[in-house]
Amino acid sequence: MSKCPCGSAKDLASCCGAYHDGAAAPTAVALMRSRYSAFVLGLGQYLHDTLAEDQRSDFDVQEFNESNGDTKWIGLDIRKTSEGGENDETGSVEFVARYKMQADTVAHHELAQFKREDGRWVFADCVMNPKEEQRVVTKVGRNEPCPCGSGKKYKKCCGAGG
Q1: Fewest beta carbons less than 10 Å away: which of 28, 29, 52, 136?
Q2: Which of 9-13, 124-128, 157-161 has the lowest mean pLDDT?
Q3: Are the C-beta atoms of 3 and 10 separated by less than 8 Å?
Q4: How far apart are CA 53 and CA 40, in angstroms?
Q5: Computed from CA positions of residues 127, 65, 7, 4, in that sequence, does the dihedral angle turn out positive or negative?
Q6: 68 vs 101: CA distance, rounded Å
Q7: Is residue 152 a contact partner of residue 146, using CB atoms and an 8 Å limit?
Q8: Alpha-carbon distance 159 to 162, whole Å?
Q9: What pLDDT was estimated at residue 90?
Q10: Distance in angstroms (rounded) separating the CA atoms of residues 73 and 105
């Protein structure tokens, strides 16, 4: 038995292999991991079949199978998930997949969108190299009204320092 490429530390047969053999992935992150494993293992048909219906025409299984041997997959890092649970209809998974192609090491950073079609999770879309929302910090002047709503000047209220 071999370890699953998705990084779960489980055997392939009891992890992503079950999905590759036809079982439905229960969550968006499980589908994401199984798709990564399919890239590692060269399972082009599985990658095609787990795309949303409107995405499938853009994926050429034969082309993938012919070119995949040039890639050595190094690892998968799941950064963040949103929704995508067993009772959800949509979800997202932010991840970084690392691979080597010829002499170059590449970090593929993606925010993948998933949805259910006919009760099964499928890859729907993605944003490459997603950026976190910028936090905006507003500075309150000493003589401005205190943001706590007391009606006092900031310097006489929360900005008094002690």
Answers
A1: 136
A2: 157-161
A3: yes
A4: 23
A5: positive
A6: 10
A7: yes
A8: 8
A9: 98
A10: 10
